[in-house]
Write a structure and sequence with these properties.
By secondary structure, the protein is mainly beta. The strands form nine sheets. It has a five-stranded mixed beta sheet. The chain has a five-stranded mixed beta sheet with strand order 10-13-18-15-16, with no helix packed on it.
Length: about 650
């Protein structure tokens, strides 16, 4: 992605490098509830501590708004909402929830020194579930400006391109496209850009309040609903276009004018909408009005006196500006009494459903089957549930699309949504209740992601969610379930090495990384005695532990994603426990997720499923492995 040579000496500059193949087009599992955060300075990134202060100094005022405007330019034309949340400064790529991690946004904005020929890097959504997906890294070694002219680079234009990758778009050769490889100053999306993102997420859909006639006049105002607290009514809406207007109505009881009414519109954390709110009395007179034009602080609150004998009020919600920030989701809360109950901040996530053990069996599975074909590539089924106790299993029914061309696969992702998340386990059964074999793509902390090959068109499948270890820690809690039938290439790991080990010995191998990258490791264990455990420890050249993985015989493989700088690493294998045991077999797998320039260019496929030998130059994969064993894992590992 080379830009024209600049006369002021910057030379060839890329938006980002894509040396590693990347699977684009995979939608975010819950695009209506995405979040974005700005990493605090000092946050660990694959290329050093984040330094957004340097970007601010270079770009000048309003650079954060320009980044948000870039993301909102995509979100405003499709079924995506993205809201600003706080960032706790955990290292970029920390293990956590695929979406909705309470510590930071799904999309994290950071800045560090990249190579001189790169402006920024970003990543699309990945079946591997790594939190590297969605993160954007600006290069602090190049000059950025807001509304840049010759000699600098425009923050909005670069962010617009990277946001397109975050939402799943590949490069485009079409002139004028924001996804064109060559840097150019952009003012917005092209028609082709809009069509491309709508193919993934669909044309933005009006909210449920619109109905057949809409609620864009006072005469068709939507009645706000009771909240469960006396005197408090609530409503949820979405401004679908810059000309969309939503009206709501509510009534109050006589209080002889002694009480006030408070109204709060929350957009913070829900969307980048900058709203204007106007309240009218029954005579059509304005009694209160407020607005926000700042997407970083886009909540609106107003207060006014109740009518002497109570009355009817109408609320008008519209965009405060006629640009992309005039579109987005919001939540309304109206307190008609002087309530002492504090107003809760609405989370961007929907409340999970507690089923009371009513769907523990396949015969009582909750039906998530789509009633109509999808017009876009969003997930076929999503749900929020709760594993209520250690005995609980939640079963769901889904149906593969009929017809179509090419092989169909089923991807299922489940992750815990609590601060101390559920450690989930997934199983898949066919329509007759027989177990279906699947590959594990991610099994780390609160995430479990699987892939089923050879799905039959039109067939019914059952997905069961339970605790990974009902007797262990994190055996209960809320979770998000996403299931998608698709025709993407299967996700395959490189088979790295296989060996055996017993309680009296350990083994040491070596890994050489020639191209710094994000890698996902997968470790499997097998033994004649279920429950035997193997530990793998990866150390850098200075002897520091990068990570460790513990795999248990009889259980699915375990995974972790880590950024490895170029250099030599030591891999140690040992048996966990002290009791004599027969030899335990271990199998190590690896996916290279990115190259060095774009450390977030998540790859989810390996063309041909190539298996790397235990001693190799690494070829185009950027690494080589030397092991005490000459064996390789025999293909991919499947579980039931």
């Amino acid at each position: 992605m080379k830009s024209p040579r600049r006369p002021f000496g910057i030379g060839f500059v890329q938006l980002e490098d894509r040396a590693v193949p990347t699977a684009f087009g995979i939608p975010w599992a819950d695009p209506g509830h995405l979040t974005v955060s700005f990493a605090p300075d000092g946050t660990t990134t694959p290329r050093g501590p984040s330094d957004l202060a340097a970007l601010s100094t270079s770009a000048g005022a309003d650079w954060e708004r320009e980044v948000l405007r870039a993301f909102q330019s995509w979100a405003s034309v499709t079924n995506v909402n993205i809201g600003v949340v706080a960032d706790g400064g955990q290292p970029i790529g920390s293990a956590g929830a695929v979406q909705g991690d309470p510590r930071f946004g799904d999309v994290r904005i950071a800045a560090a020194g990249l190579t001189p020929n790169a402006l920024a890097s970003a990543s699309p959504f990945s079946w591997t579930g790594t939190t590297f997906a969605g993160d954007v890294l600006f290069n602090t070694n190049v000059p950025f400006r807001v509304n840049a002219d010759t000699g600098t680079y425009d923050v909005f234009s670069v962010a617009l391109h990277e946001a397109g990758h975050v939402f799943g778009l590949d490069h485009s050769a079409l002139p004028g496209s924001a996804m064109n490889e060559s840097y150019a100053k952009r003012v917005g999306l092209s028609d082709a850009d809009r069509a491309a993102v709508q193919q993934i997420y669909g044309v933005r859909t009006p909210d449920a309040n619109e109905g057949a006639l809409g609620n864009d006049t006072a005469a068709r105002a939507t009645a706000l609903k009771a909240s469960g607290l006396v005197g408090r009514v609530v409503g949820d809406g979405d401004l679908t276009t810059t000309t969309d207007v939503d009206y709501y109505k509510f009534s109050t009881l006589p209080t002889l004018g002694l009480t006030s009414i408070t109204l709060h519109l929350q957009a913070q954390g829900l969307s980048l909408l900058t709203p204007r709110v106007t309240v009218y009395n029954s005579a059509g007179q304005i009694v209160a009005q407020a607005q926000s034009t700042d997407p970083l602080n886009n909540d609106v609150a107003l207060k006014f006196t109740n009518a002497l004998f109570g009355g009817n009020f109408t609320v008008k919600v519209e965009g405060a500006t006629d640009d992309v920030f005039g579109i987005g989701a919001y939540h309304l809360t109206v307190d008609t009494l002087n309530l002492t109950t504090p107003l809760p901040l609405l989370n961007s996530l929907l409340a999970p459903v507690t089923d009371g053990h009513l769907n523990d069996l396949l015969s009582t599975a909750t039906d998530l089957t789509a009633l109509a074909p999808k017009a876009d590539n969003r997930f076929d089924a999503t749900y929020r549930g709760v594993i209520e106790d250690r005995r609980d299993t939640d079963a769901y029914k889904v149906r593969a699309p009929a017809g179509g061309s090419g092989p169909i696969q089923l991807n299922v992702m489940v992750w815990g949504t609590d601060a101390s998340p559920l450690a989930p386990r997934v199983k898949v059964n066919d329509s007759a209740g027989k177990p279906v074999a699947f590959r594990v793509l991610a099994n780390e902390g609160g995430l479990f992601s699987v892939e089923v090959d050879g799905v039959l068109p039109g067939a019914t499948y059952y997905i069961s969610v339970s605790a990974r270890d009902p007797k262990g820690d994190n055996a209960t809690g809320s979770y998000f379930l996403g299931a998608d039938f698709n025709t993407f290439d299967p996700t395959t790991f490189d088979g790295l090495t296989s060996g055996t080990i017993d309680s009296s010995a350990s083994q040491t191998d070596s890994l050489h990384v020639s191209d710094a990258s994000v890698f996902q490791f997968a470790l499997a264990a097998s033994s004649a005695r279920a429950g035997d455990e193997i530990r793998m420890i990866l150390e850098d050249n200075a002897g520091r532990v990068v990570f460790s993985l513990d795999a248990t015989a009889g259980q699915p493989l375990v995974t972790t994603a880590a950024y490895l700088a170029a250099g030599n690493y030591t891999v140690r294998y040992s048996y966990i426990g002290s009791s004599p045991t027969p030899a335990v077999r271990y199998d190590l797998y690896l996916i290279r997720l990115s190259d060095d320039i774009g450390p977030y260019a998540t790859q989810t496929t390996k063309p041909g499923g190539r298996v790397m030998p235990p001693t190799t130059s690494g070829g185009g994969n950027g690494y080589s492995y030397n092991g005490s064993s000459s064996a390789n894992p025999n293909g991919q590992v499947y579980y039931f």
